Amino acid sequence: MKVLLGVIVCTMVLLLSLRSCAAAMRPDLTITTIKQDPYTMSKGSQMEGYCMDLLSELAKKLDFKYNVHLVKDGSYGRQDESGAWNGMIGEVVRKEADLAIAPLTLTAAREKAVGMTKPFMQTGISILLRKDISEEAGIFDFLTPFSVETWVGILAAYLGTAISICVVARLSPCEWSQPQTEENSFTFSHSLWYTAGALTLQGAGPHPKALSGRIICCTWWLFGLVLLACYFSNLSTSQGSDSNQLMVKGFEDLANQQGIEYGTLSGSSTLAFFKNSNNPTYRRIYEHMERAKSFVSSMDEGVRRAKEGNFAFIGESVSLDLVVARHCELVRVHEVIGMRGYSIAGTLGSPMLKNLSVAILELSEAGELAYLRSKWWASSCMADPAKASPLQPHSLKGMFLVLALGLGLGVLLAVLELTTKSRSNAGEQRKSYCTVLSDELSQRLRTTTTTTNKKRSQETADKDKA
Question: In chain numbering, where does the site feature Crucial to convey clamshell closure to channel opening fall (predicted)?
Answer without folding.
Answer: 248
